[in-house]
Amino acid sequence: MPRATKQSAAPFVPDTVDLDALSDAAGGCRGCDLYRDAEQTVFGAGKRSARMMLIGEQPGDQEDRAGQPFVGPAGKLLNKALEAAGIDRDLTYVTNAVKHFKYVPAERGQRRIHKKPNRTEIVACRPWLVAELHAVQPDVLVCLGATAAQALLGPSFRLTTHRGERLHLDGEVDVAGDPDVFVTIHPSAVLRGPDRDEAFSGLVEDLKKAALAL
């Protein structure tokens, strides 16, 4: 097993665009300390031919246990929003900026509560996200939430300022194809919000804008 440089997944990322090989390699990543408490690495899911890639923050409690992204409550709401926007999730690739679940320890029998990854952890995990981008080469990227947007567009990026706009990668990440980038809220923000109907409608409208770019 390769030795990781401090807080970087780069030594663990193989030089390949084979998603199965990347996923297998990610299972042994020790690029930051998040692997110590997570059940497993949660890599992206979908076809290499996907034209749209959806990027969230990190796996949650259910994703960590299942080893698949967006299978918990937020994932179910995302499925509903994609359907409402006329997007077939089976034709998308879904992943997260951070591949291990970071959480606050819970009492016995209770669900573990998500804790936001810090900038060091986001940057450490970014080589996996870049590898996925090189493998899939999507036409459209949809960043779900501020963490995903800042992973690709820099720490000063503000989702509220640029939500729903057509953007482009400009230095933080270099990938082929110059995909269109859209940013919107994370589905979990809909679940937590005071007005779920309004928040859900906003998410759907943002996804529709992204779909029009395909």
From TrEMBL:
Spans traversing the lipid bilayer: none
SUPFAM superfamilies assigned to the protein according to its UniProt record, in alphabetical order: Uracil-DNA glycosylase-like
Keywords: 4Fe-4S, DNA damage, DNA repair, Hydrolase, Iron, Iron-sulfur, Metal-binding
Gene3D superfamilies: Uracil-DNA glycosylase-like domain
InterPro entries membership: UDG_Type-4/5, Ura-DNA_glyco_family4, Uracil-DNA_glycosylase-like, Uracil-DNA_glycosylase-like_sf
Annotated family: Belongs to the uracil-DNA glycosylase (UDG) superfamily. Type 4 (UDGa) family.
NCBIfam families, per database record: UDG_fam4, UDG_fam_dom
Name under which the protein is recorded: Type-4 uracil-DNA glycosylase
Natural source organism: Rhodococcus oxybenzonivorans
